[in-house]
């Protein structure tokens, strides 16, 4: 297809077919049906938010343009009262990016769809640029969703993207990551990112666009072999059957990941409790369970939450610790958590010296130690820091299975507000909301059940349910 990124003269002709004739729409639907895809089923299984628009990330490429057109068609037939907000992120990394973003805006204007251009401002990193760009993209789209009152974002990841992702993760030996791209991901605990095109090939979507008389912009970086995904795409193109095999393997890994997560969630619900602030107690015999895989995942997740880690511990250290716990008393540290196994239970609490940075400014919405979100700030408070040892704490709970010394050690790792003179403002737990650290930013629907069980244990606000009819994360 013609690259329109630098051709303004082509724009009027391009837009002339943007709405498509009735015949074009019928033909496009017929093409999707021939490929075994029911256009209505792409979105009919979604539970749309009660209010607000649906945000669609549209780069101007073929995949995202196809998503925009298909969703707009679906709403015109089945949900005329629903609105779409298309957003295009200009990363400022290519000279033609701004022109492409304006092209998307012109298409949206023709279709009657609201559009916003989101610019990534500021200096760009010298290393890890693609990862930083991805993070910036999600940050900007999330902000746009919150400002517009949207609770759902859609992205145009395809079957090809799924195959490429599984291919790359298999090359790295990524265990849980072999499940590939999730059809739904909860972003920052508030907005669901949906990927309704994961079962559709990129070529099918582009054939549909051609049938509608629509063109798209090709990003030149998609041909740059300096990027891992471009190299993976080249390998898959050389072996037509490999993509199908990878997608099938990904689906099998998804089923295994969900099943294990369900069992780990049961371990958390049945075998873990919080007898005192900041202190988790696991039943002492949990390490001798018949389902070591589920108990090991539960332990890894608990360590990550207690230690304020953004990822589960998956480098073998959690497995070694779990094996040690079956042998008797243990005191160890892992990923920012202290694990103290005694006859009365296996206790976990925050390790104070693990990367501790001291006081941070008190700001509503900020994460403190990746464990608490600051919700409200009491009068006079300017900072938040750990209580630390030696500070007065709350009362010790009389519990024969929970030593007072462990309660005090756990309380030392909890947050406290401070005034400008460095004095404590004892606000108890008020003002802070606990977060499930490894899933605080991104929660794939595969892991919804263990995340919900962890949230209930730590007293986190309830998670919004996955917006898929009949979906129980399995």
UniProtKB/TrEMBL annotation:
Protein name as it appears in the record: tRNA(Ile)-lysidine synthase
Coiled coil: none
Keyword annotations of the record: ATP-binding, Cytoplasm, Ligase, Nucleotide-binding, tRNA processing
GO MF term list: ATP binding; tRNA(Ile)-lysidine synthase activity
Subcellular compartments: Cytoplasm
Taxonomy, superkingdom: Bacteria
Sites where the protein binds ATP: 59-64
UniProt organism field: Nitratireductor arenosus
Domain notes: The N-terminal region contains the highly conserved SGGXDS motif, predicted to be a P-loop motif involved in ATP binding.
Function: Ligates lysine onto the cytidine present at position 34 of the AUA codon-specific tRNA(Ile) that contains the anticodon CAU, in an ATP-dependent manner. Cytidine is converted to lysidine, thus changing the amino acid specificity of the tRNA from methionine to isoleucine.
């Amino acid at each position: 297809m013609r690259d329109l990124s630098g051709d303004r003269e082509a724009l009027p002709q391009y837009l002339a077919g943007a709405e498509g004739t009735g015949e074009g729409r019928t033909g496009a639907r017929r093409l999707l049906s021939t490929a075994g895809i029911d256009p209505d089923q792409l979105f009919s299984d979604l539970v749309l938010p009660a209010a607000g628009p649906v945000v669609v990330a549209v780069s101007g490429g073929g995949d995202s343009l196809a998503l925009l057109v298909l969703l707009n068609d679906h709403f015109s037939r089945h949900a005329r009262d629903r609105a779409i907000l298309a957003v295009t992120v200009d990363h400022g990394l290519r000279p033609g990016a701004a022109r492409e973003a304006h092209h998307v805006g012109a298409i949206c204007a023709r279709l009657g769809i609201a559009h916003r251009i989101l610019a990534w401002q500021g200096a760009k990193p010298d290393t890890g640029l693609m990862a930083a760009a991805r993070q910036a993209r999600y940050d900007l789209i999330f902000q746009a969703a919150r400002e517009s009152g949207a609770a759902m974002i859609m992205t145009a990841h395809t079957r090809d993207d799924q195959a490429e992702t599984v291919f790359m993760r298999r090359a790295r030996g990524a265990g849980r990551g072999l499940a590939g791209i999730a059809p739904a991901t909860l972003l920052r605990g508030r907005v669901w990112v949906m990927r309704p095109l994961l079962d559709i090939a990129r070529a099918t979507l582009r054939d549909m666009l051609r049938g509608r008389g629509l063109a798209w912009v090709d990003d030149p970086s998609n041909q740059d072999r300096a990027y891992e995904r471009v190299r993976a795409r080249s390998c898959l193109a050389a072996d037509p059957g490999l993509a199908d095999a990878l997608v099938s393997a990904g689906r099998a890994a998804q089923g295994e990941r969900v099943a294990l997560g369900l069992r780990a969630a049961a371990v958390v619900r049945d075998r873990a409790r919080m007898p005192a602030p900041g202190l988790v107690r696991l039943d002492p015999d949990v390490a001798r369970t018949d389902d070591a895989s589920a108990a090991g995942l539960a332990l890894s997740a608990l360590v990550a939450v207690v230690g304020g880690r953004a990822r589960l511990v998956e480098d073998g250290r959690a497995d070694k610790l779990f094996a040690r716990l079956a042998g008797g008393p243990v005191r160890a540290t892992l990923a920012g958590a202290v694990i103290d196994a005694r006859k009365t239970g296996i206790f976990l609490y925050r390790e104070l010296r693990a990367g501790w940075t001291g006081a941070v400014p008190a700001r509503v919405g900020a994460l403190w130690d990746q464990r608490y979100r600051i919700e409200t700030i009491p009068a006079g408070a300017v900072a938040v820091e750990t209580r630390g040892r030696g500070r007065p704490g709350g009362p010790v709970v009389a519990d024969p299975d929970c030593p007072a010394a462990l309660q005090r050690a756990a309380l030392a790792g909890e947050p406290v507000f401070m005034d400008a003179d460095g004095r404590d403002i004892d606000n108890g737990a008020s003002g802070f909301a606990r977060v499930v650290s490894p899933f605080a930013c991104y929660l794939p629907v595969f892991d919804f059940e263990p995340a919900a069980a962890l949230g209930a244990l730590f007293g986190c606000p309830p998670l919004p349910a996955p917006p898929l009819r009949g979906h129980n994360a399995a």
